[in-house]
Amino acid sequence: ETGVTQTPRHLVMGMTNKKSLKCEQHLGHNAMYWYKQSAKKPLELMFVYSLEERVENNSVPSRFSPECPNSSHLFLHLHTLQPEDSALYLCASSQDIGQPQHFGDGTRLSIL
Amino acid sequence: GIQVEQSPPDLILQEGANSTLRCNFSDSVNNLQWFHQNPWGQLINLFYIPSGTKQNGRLSATTVATERYSLLYISSSQTTDSGVYFCAVPPGWLDSSYKLIFGSGTRLLVRP
Question: Which residues from chain B sit within 8 angstroms of residue A48, using beta carbons?
Fold first, then answer.
């Protein structure tokens, strides 16, 4: 039990589909993050939320849309994705910005 | 931007052996984390160690901030230690410390 739960663990979708990734943290943390890990590339920070406010958007294409309805939940809404978006998407949380980050198990996404 | 280099890129050990993984960074930082990603993609936070030495079981880490490097020691390695070890630092002393820049990792295989 990592304290950060991501669902689904695996997702296969077509380029025209719309799906959402979910992240829930049970640690009472105030900050949450989305990362993308592609094959043979370092982890890339996508979005950061602190107390439900977005504080970082690292030039991520608009086909990725985050949502943070409360400090325990973070979503990543996906639509019209491209094959190069196939990757492991990791969610993390930390007590506050700058504190150690704890990661979920990730969602492995495959775009057909 | 800050550069993070990890060495060696690949390491094969016999079970029971000890090893040292290194992380060099090109600028002063106020935050450094070590992570282990197991073969299933789970990313586990090992240490939050901006300076000094910490120990957790068979693992220990030392960061010498003034010389811009950190070391991760694995003693009496076990097959479950296999995976990729990442170090991550913020982009710079004056930059927001929530942005983690990851190294490319050390891929460790421990053989029985």
Answer: 98-99
- Residue among A112, A66, A62, A59 at smallest CA distance from A89: A66
Q: Residue B9 CB: number of other CB atoms within 10 A?
A: 12
* Residue A13 buriedness (CB in 10 A; 0-12 / 13-18 / 19+): middle
Give the integer Cα–Cα distance in Å for B88 and A55: 20
- Which among B42, B45, B101 is the nearest to A101, CB-wise? B45
d(CA B17, CA A76): 42
- Dump pLDDT digits (tens) for A62-83: 999 999 999 999 999 999 999 9
Taking 70 as the pLDDT cut, the residues of chain A under it are 1-2, 57-58
Count of alpha carbons within 13 angstroms of residue A105, beta-carbon side: 11
Alpha-carbon distances of B65 from B21, B28, B37, B62, B69, rounded to whole Å: 16, 7, 24, 9, 6
What is the Cα–Cα distance from A54 to A38, expressed in whole angstroms?
A: 23
Question: How far away is chain A from the Cα of B18, in angstroms, using its nearest Cα?
Answer: 26
From the list B40, B44, B102, the residue facing A42 with the nearest CB is B102
User: If we measure between CA atoms, which residue out of A8, A15, A46 comes closest to residue A111?
Assistant: A15
